[in-house]
Amino acid sequence: MVTFAVRSTDVGERTATGIRKAAGNGAVHVGPLDLADRALIAAVTSAWSGSLHWRLFRPLALGRPDPLPHLSG
Q: Residue 66 in 3-state DSSP?
């Protein structure tokens, strides 16, 4: 399962839909997370279970080069 924690759930859902179609896997979920909202951060972290792997995609979303290409793939 993959979960995208995003500020804009509309944009995150569009991205997740594309990934679901391309991967043929429906286990891609989107959830709200605004790092400026401490209550939301607490709610997300208290509800989370399992392992956690994260990556910030903001530079790619803005059309900028990937600052960490060695982590791609």
A: coil
